[in-house]
Design goal:
The chain has 284 residues and is an alpha/beta fold. The chain has one domain (2-240): P-loop containing nucleotide triphosphate hydrolases (Rossmann fold, 3-Layer(aba) Sandwich), CATH 3.40.50. It has 12 helices and 10 strands. The longest helix is centred in the last third of the chain and has 17 residues, at 224-240. The protein is globular. The chain starts with a strand and ends with a strand. Residues 236-284 are annotated as: Disordered. InterPro entries: P-loop_NTPase (IPR027417). This is Chromosome partitioning protein.
């Protein structure tokens, strides 16, 4: 399953929530791909090496490959989560994303192949998505989109015009509010789209996802941010793998009566019912 986490305005913490979502995804091997054209944060947060990552993957994908090639360009975070980190420099990040998008039969298709593997989820941190963003092809290829928006009037004012476009990218868009502002009920009434929830204000839990050491009290599984991400992950996972409907009950067909021993053949009505035989020249 391929899930894109993005915003349409500002920077409401897409990277932090993408990591939280992947860390709390149920029963799946998770991979975070930094597809933010403004540059990546994970390498600096977790002191990752400059390679392998998004740049090396974009270069290798030009020569083709399969899903295993993507895993070869990942690095591990302290908790074991695998990530493909983008360079902090925006120019390099945009160039790498453009290369992946231009070679859709190799670069972008490799991400789709990984996301299609059994029990694998790819969380793409697309950052702020503008019409010309090189991360837009990834968002358009997603099975689900998590749209983050601050709940202030100036942020929400951009949504009515662009929500129909986001809905065309994915059959499963989810709106999450970030920070103080309008309530979920007010946003649902004005936009006609009910938010799935509001990302909790959890500085300590967010700090863990920003590279600070976890403690038993503030690890991803115990923090308010981690619990909320687990709720969203469960909802998205259920949408991506809907329950198989029960088959309709079997009805044993009743065979039409065409012949009875000792009774002369007679015409059978279209309903399959044989007229009663006549007795003494009269119908009984």
């Amino acid at each position: 399953m391929l899930v894109s986490v993005l915003s349409l305005k500002g920077s409401p913490g897409a990277t932090t929530f993408a990591v939280a979502l992947a860390a709390r995804w149920p029963s799946a091997r998770a991979l975070v791909v930094e597809a933010d054209p403004s540059g990546g944060d994970l390498a600096l947060r977790f002191s990752l090496a400059s390679t392998p990552g998004l740049v090396s993957l974009a270069a290798a994908a030009r020569r083709g490959g399969d899903a295993d090639l993507v895993w070869q360009h990942t690095q591990g975070l302290p908790g074991g989560l695998r990530v493909i980190a983008a360079p902090p420099d925006a120019e390099q990040a945009r160039a790498a994303l453009s290369a992946l998008a231009q070679h859709q039969t190799s670069g972008l298709d490799l991400l789709r192949q990984v996301a299609a593997q059994p029990d694998v989820v790819v969380i793409a941190d697309c950052g702020r998505v503008d019409p010309g963003s090189p991360g837009l092809p990834i968002a358009r290829s997603s099975n689900a989109i998590v749209l983050l928006s601050r709940a202030h009037a100036d942020d929400l004012a951009h949504l009515p015009r662009r929500l129909p476009t986001v809905a065309r990218w994915s059959p499963n868009p989810v709106l999450l509010l970030v920070g103080p502002g309008y309530s979920e009920a007010e946003v649902a009434r004005e936009l006609g789209v009910p938010p799935l929830g509001r990302v909790p204000h959890d500085p300590r839990g967010a700090a863990v996802l920003c590279g600070r050491p976890a403690t038993s009290r503030w690890g991803p599984s115990r923090s308010a941010l981690g619990r909320f991400a687990e709720k969203v992950a469960g909802e998205l996972a259920s949408r991506g793998h809907p329950a198989t409907p029960e088959p309709p009950p079997m009805h044993t067909p009743v065979p039409a009566l065409h012949a009875v021993p000792g009774v002369p053949p007679a015409a059978v009505s279209p309903t399959g019912v044989r007229p009663a035989p006549s007795v003494g020249g009269q119908s009984s």
